[in-house]
Amino acid sequence: MPSIRDHTERVYRVAHQSSAAVISPVAASWRRCMTLHGLAPEEARAPWRLSDAEFRQARENAGTLIAEAAGELDRLFATVGKAGCCLLLTDGKGVALERRGAGGDDADFRGIGLWSGTVWSEASVGTNGIGTAIADERPVLIHRDQHFLSRNIGLSCATAPIRDESGRLAAAIDISTCRDDASEATLSILSQAVRDAAARIEANLFRRAFVGARIVLVPVDRAGPALLAVDRDDLVLGATRAARLWLGLDDERIADGVPASDLLEGELSAEREELPDAERAALRRALSRAKGNVSMAADLLGISRATLYRKMKRLSLN
């Protein structure tokens, strides 16, 4: 591990290069810390800490997140806790809401600031797992001297962002260790574990947001859970970020109404539905495809406009 002086000089040298943003994500983060946040690597600064009232409010605002993440935090800590690791769950601003750590390691982690109520954004402590994962909206691995502040070069962090039911960044989950023998191979394993936990928390949040809807797994090879929430008439109510990226969905398209069977090439057929439900779903799909134009929907269904109006009235479709 380099000395504090060597690390400080290296950060200044790299961050002052105009090409820092293309050298590596870490170099880009170092440059942000200096030019955007006005930080200096030699500063002996601890993370910002919320007041008790601010912390209570932050936890209240994130009540659903904390409830859906608790089980995953416990399971993950049962796996990595004995290896000298600390877990943090933060909100989208980097505020540490929940923590898991072994009592024997508490003094070390508290001294660094890995504690509930602290803020691990880049603006607070420079390049670090949580802050950089939130800034870049991607999983990151920040190993020792990749941190911006020289005081943190003994720390290694593996972090993954967590997205809400609309695909927007809402939180982060982090594994950190101060062990001298933490190798890059070990950190890679921890990084995969934290990404898997983040994906499960995202799925929990999505299912909770669409209670009563049918949850459909989109068969894609993409990071994060690719899920759709579908109503009884096969219209998409919501989609996770992975599903949105794969299927070309956004809030506007979902609000307009799009049949899931159109997206998944008919995999969600209505073969097992009762006849009235199947007919109602077919009419809604046609109207959705026609953007509400009754004449066009009738043409799609191969029936007259008058017949379509009668069916809509019978099935209470406005």
From TrEMBL:
This is Transcriptional regulator, Fis family. Residues 275-315 form the DNA binding HTH domain. It comes from the Bacteria. Pfam families: GAF (PF01590), HTH_8 (PF02954). Residues 73-201 form the GAF domain. It comes from Sinorhizobium medicae. GO terms for molecular function: sequence-specific DNA binding. InterPro entries: GAF, GAF-like_dom_sf, Homeodomain-like_sf, HTH_Fis. Coiled coil: none annotated. Gene3D superfamilies: 3.30.450.40, Homeodomain-like (1.10.10.60).
